[in-house]
Amino acid sequence: MDPIREYVRNETRRQFLSRGSNAVGWAAMAALLGREGLAPRAGAAGLEASPTGIHPAGSRLHFAPKAKQVIYLHMVGGPPQMDMYDYKPQMNAYFDKDLPDSIRMGQRLTTMTSGQKRFPIAPSKYKFARSGKNGMWVCELLPYTARMVDDMCFIRSMHTEAINHEPAITYMQTGNQVTGRPCLGAWLSYGLGSLNDNLPTFVVLVAKPTNTEQLQAISARLWSSGYLSGEHAGVSFRSGGDPILYINNPPGVPAGIRRETLNGLKALNELNYKIVGDPETHTRIEQYELAFRMQSSVPELTATSNEPEATYKLYGEAARKPGTFAHSALLARRMIERGVRFVQIYHNNWDTHANVAGRMPDQCRDVDQPCWGLIQDLKARGLLDETLVIWGGEFGRTIYSQGGLTHDNYGRDHHPRCFTMWMAGGGSRPGQIYGETDEFSYNIVKDPVHIHDFHATVLQLLGFDHRRFTYRYLGLDQRLTGVEPARVVKELIA
C-alpha cells in the first residue's frame, strides 16, 4: 500500500479511538455492530469446527437461550447472609462465645479483625419467618421479598477466594481478581449484540443509598470491556442532570441546526471516504447518527414522570426520586422494555463492619420493595420469562463480631467462604433453595457454588456454553470462566 495512504488510515484510526472515551460513541458502535448482524441469532444450534476445539462467540449461540436480557443488582460491600437469608437460630445459644477453632480452621482474616484477641459469636438480632411454598426463611426487614420467594431461586452456598473488596467485586464482575478483564455485561454485549439501535447495549446505574455511613469505591473498571472492543463497555447513566454527558445540544443550538451540521459532516466524510477508502469513515458517520437519535431516545427513556400511580405503588415512593435504588429499578424495567441487553445497578453501603442495627434497616428498605416491584412489573408485562434478574454482593460476612458486641448491635467482617445470592426469571428455577451452610453460616456443607460455576450457569441461561464462549487475546482463547474447572449448576435452571 502507498505509505501516505497507510499513514492516513492509521491516523484516522487513532483519531477514532481517541474519541472512544465518549460513552455515546461506544454506545453508537454497540448498536452499529448489532445492526450489521454480528450478534448471535437466538436459537441457532451447532458451530463450525475449530482447530482448537474451542469456539468464539462468532455469529451464533450454542443453543436456544432461556433469557435474552439481564438486570444485575449488585450490593456493594457484601450483605450479611445470616441477617437476611441464612437463618441460624442455634447461634442464640452461642452469644459472645468464641468461634470454635474447628469451624474457623485457620481461615485467612482481614487486617480489620486479625488483631482481635477474641472472635465472639454475634447471632442475628432480627426475627425470621418461613415464607412461600418452599418455606424459605426470610428476615423481618424484607417483608416484600418474603411475598415472592416462590418466584426466586436462592443460592446459599456461593463462595470465593477473594477477601477484600476490590479483588472480590472484580472477581464477581469479571471472573478474575485482577483488573483489566471484560465484565459479564461486556461479554454479553459481545456475544448477543444490540436489540435497539437507539440505546446502548449495556447500561450501568449507580444508586444512592439512604444511609451513607461507609461507602465503597465504585469505579468504571467494573464495567470495562477489558480486551474486548471498547464498544462493549457499559455506558454509565448519571443520577442527576443529563443522563449522559453531552447528550443534549449546547445552549443556543436547536435540533434543526444540529441536523444540518450532521448532514454537512456526512457529506465531508463521504468525500473523505472516496479519497482515502477507509471503512472507518462510514463507522464514524453511523456514530454521529446514533448520537443524534439518542438525543430523543434517552430523554424519553429517563422521563419517568409519565408513569402511572400504579407504578409507584409497586416500586415505592422512593422511585419518584432520581438516583435512588427504587428509581434505578424502575429505569431498569424501562430499559429492558426498550431492548437494552444488560442493566447493571450498584447499591452501596453494605460493608457492615459496625452498627448493623443502625444500617441494615435502611439498606433493606432501599432494596426490598423495589426488587419486589421490579419482579412483579416484569411478570405483568410478560418480560420476566426472558429477563434474568440477579441479586447479590461480592462476598458474605462473618458470624463473629468485629469490634464491640451487644445483643442489640454488632459488626461483621468480610467472609468469602459462604454467602447468599438469588435469581429470578430468565429460565432460573423458581422456588429453588440450593446449598447449605453449617450452623455458624461459616462453612458450606452441601452443594457449593463457586463464582465460576455461577457465571457458567448464567451463560447457559443466555444460550452459551462457557467452555466455547471465547475471545482470542494474547494467543489464548480467553473466557469469562477462566481455565479452572467450572460447572453449570443444572439445579438452578428451570
Shape: globular
How far is the N terminus from the C terminus?
56 Å
Number of strands: 17
Percentage beta strand: 15-25%
Class by alpha and beta content: alpha/beta
Proportion of helical residues: 25-40%
Q: Averaged pLDDT, please?
A: 87
The DSSP helix count reads 12
Largest sheet: 9 strands, mixed
Order of helices and strands: HHEHEEHEHHEEHHHHEHEEEEEEEEHEE
Radius of gyration: 24 Å
Domains, number: 1
Low-confidence runs of at least 5 consecutive residues = 16-23, 28-59
List the helices and strands and how they pair.
Layout: H1 3-18, H2 23-35, E1 69-75, H3 101-104, E2 128-131, E3 136-139, H4 143-146, E4 152-159, H5 165-174, H6 184-192, E5 202-207, E6 235-237, H7 255-276, H8 280-302, H9 309-315, H10 325-337, E7 342-347, H11 356-380, E8 387-392, E9 396-401, E10 412-415, E11 419-424, E12 433-434, E13 436-437, E14 444-446, E15 449-450, H12 451-461, E16 471-473, E17 476-478
Parallel strand pairs: 1-7, 1-8, 4-12, 4-15, 5-6, 5-7
Antiparallel strand pairs: 2-3, 4-11, 8-11, 9-10, 13-14, 16-17
Overview of the structural elements:
- The strands form five sheets. Strands 1, 4, 5, 6, 7, 8, 11, 12 and 15 form a nine-stranded mixed beta sheet that branches. Strands 2-3 form a two-stranded antiparallel ribbon.
- The longest helix is centred in the C-terminal third of the chain and has 25 residues, at about 355-380.
- The chain starts with a helix and ends in a 16-residue tail after the last strand.
- The protein has one domain.
- About 30% of the residues lie in helices and about 15% in strands.
- It is α/β, with parallel strands linked by helices and about 500 residues long.
- The protein is built from twelve helices and 17 strands.
